[in-house]
Amino acid sequence: MEQYYEAIDLLKGMISRPSFSREETAVADYLQQRWTDAGHHVFRKGNNLWLIAPGFDFAKPTLLLNSHIDTVKPVAGWQRDPFLPEETDDDRLYGLGSNDAGASVVSLYEAFRILTAKPQPYNLLFLASCEEEVSGKNGIESVLPELPPIHFAVVGEPTGMLPAIAEKGLMVLDCVATGKAGHAARDEGVNAIYKAIEDINWFSTYQFPDYSDLLGRVKMTVTMIHAGTQHNVVPDRCEFTVDIRTNEFYSNERLFELIQAQVGCEVKARSFRLNSSRLDPKHPFVRRTLMLGKMPFGSPTLSDQALMRFPSVKIGPGDSARSHSADEFIHTYEIREAIATYVRLLDGLTL
């Protein structure tokens, strides 16, 4: 399969160019040149690149293929050079971003080429976006207004090519409990830590009633805490951070209102942008996945789906457990299978 070998070569080129979030220029330049040399007109905004299949027709629905070109920074523990693509005898390709989400980028690109070789009942767009790992405002969120209205999106992330038809959203809260300073040796002051503990206990035990069959309950986790200036001063301020993963029954705005009514501390949300999503199980794409024996599931991890206000599904080669890990790798056969599966799922799909 010619496309398979081209995909592997393209991925090796991506790995060899550091592309940390907000620092993706080198890999964006590389991809733009490769795709231009292949005969595509490459649109670019910042470090986001997109291709539009020939014969765009506003009378047809538009299907978006999307994955991201940025990576996290390498964690401690790498035994290999994270920027040296290394292919081994056991069919592994090592390198930072190989699994998350370079394999999806190159697989979707090759699927785009195959699908556009014949007429389709939809317009097809391919978008390689940046800043996904930090949910940055200069990533896909900045590009969507430049694109035609999207009817459906396929988001490439490592799911073992199983369709994630629901995804948890994210809201981060910065909380402040306020007390009154005093000397620790005397019975004076109001300890802000003790006040914070009451709210932390609520966050750790409360369960919102609406349960999702795919995503479970809303999950609230206190992940950071800071208080005090020295051992003998009753602290008058205690700050803590809460990571909240939402299901489809609660918008971030609604959840924020409910939380404010329950806790005594001051609560501020960093953003309401990253909401949960869910695709109708009767969607034509989902029906095709079932015909191939691929069972839908709900994903606890965040992707650019959270910024899409249209139906979408997350599906791509690789394993989420390998993402952000030392000695990250992709099995090269996973890329070959991904290209074929994307084509089988999308060729002639009626939206």
Features:
351 residues, 27% helix, six-stranded mixed sheet, 8 helices
Continuous helix count: 8
What's the β-strand tally? Answer: 18
Gyration radius from CA atoms, angstroms: 23 Å
* Strand residue percentage: 15-25%
The low-confidence runs, each spanning 5 or more residues with pLDDT under 50, are: none
> Overall mean pLDDT score?
97
Sheet bearing the most strands, described?
Answer: 6 strands, mixed
Q: Which helices and strands appear, and what pairs or packs with what?
A:
Elements lengths: L1 H14 L9 H13 L5 E3 L2 E5 L9 E7 L17 E2 L4 E3 L3 H18 L7 E7 L10 H4 L8 E4 L8 E4 L1 E10 L3 E2 L8 H14 L13 E9 L5 E2 L2 E10 L5 H9 L5 E4 L7 E2 L5 H8 L5 E3 L12 E3 L14 E3 H15 L5
Parallel strand pairs: 3-6, 3-7, 7-17, 8-16
Antiparallel strand pairs: 1-2, 2-6, 4-5, 5-18, 8-15, 9-13, 9-14, 10-12, 11-13
What does this structure look like?
The chain is an alpha+beta fold and 351 residues long. It contains eight helices and 18 strands. The protein has helices at 2-15, 25-37, 98-115, 140-143, 192-205, 252-260, 284-291, 332-346; strands at residues 43-45, 48-52, 62-68, 86-87, 92-94, 123-129, 152-155, 164-167, 169-178, 182-183, 219-227, 233-234, 237-246, 266-269, 277-278, 297-299, 312-314, 329-331. The chain has a six-stranded mixed beta sheet. Strands 11-13-9-14 form a four-stranded antiparallel beta sheet. The protein has a three-stranded antiparallel beta sheet with strand order 4-5-18. Strand 4 (86-87) and strand 5 (92-94) form a beta hairpin. Helix 1 packs across helix 8 (332-346) and helix 3 packs across helix 8. The protein is globular, with a radius of gyration of 23 Å. It starts with a helix and ends in a 5-residue tail after the last helix.
